[in-house]
Amino acid sequence: MKLPDPSPAVLLVVSDKSAPYSKFLDGFAQCNRPSEGVQLRYDVKTVDQVAADPPLFESFDVVGVGTRATKFLYDHADSPTFSASLLPSIAVHQLLAGEVTGYSASLEAAFVIDQPLSRRLALVRALLPKASTLSIVLGPDSAFFEEELRREAKAFGFTLNIAEVASEQDLSPVVMPLFDNSDGMLLFYDPVMTSPRAIRFLLYSAYRRQVPVIGYSEGFVKAGAIAAAYSSPQALGCQVAQHFSRKMLLAAEIPARERPIFIYPFYYQYRINETVAESLGISTGRILPDKPVPEDTP
User: Fold this and answer.
1) Which residues, 6 or more positions from 53, have their beta carbon under 8 angstroms from its beta carbon?
2) What is the total count of domains within the chain?
């Protein structure tokens, strides 16, 4: 009788051992169970551990967890085929910026932390049913999806006022005129707008003009945004475990011409800042339901 192969089927390469990555691993372990497909054998190594003692990548389904791990694997001399996870789509586009062919032979899939535009716009419509115009601020690294954003917004009945900034110093002169004709502001991740000073400016300026802000993380809601849709590291870890257990069960492969595919969060949460909503006279009774990670089953 042939014994099962004792080697791990999945190698999770984490950027480091800090809280977001530990929580991702907790979610992966929670959802790695036979009821989700095939229970995976897996191993976890940090970037530093892999750099010191490179494994045989071809023996695993390799997953880079975080931006640092993804860039490390992408630039690795052995060019392993791998998937990325727990990173914004901007980070993936930055990696692929130098690809002449428009796709990556090594990066198979990207489990991004961004919520799909339709999900975020549905939240805006639920909170602001009469809104017609939304303000958007894009930076150098987020401008690439303006066309998609306009298309999705049109489907929800929104007209967009879009401003592009090259640096944090551009925010005040460029953003302030947006509030003159705006029913709400929808924020997107871009490195030039992530400093505490830039975030405070955007939220405070919008609040003074009585313009509700919809953020992209729980932190934004705590800081003063009226709402956000987001996914926790645990939820993303769960999704990755489910994906690879089903992939192993089906023996599915992704054609190289389609790489990388962008996989958006399957599990997500909505959060509301009730204090801000009340001060702006906005009813939150129409908030959409969450899609949480399934509870452990006996």
Assistant:
1) none
2) 2
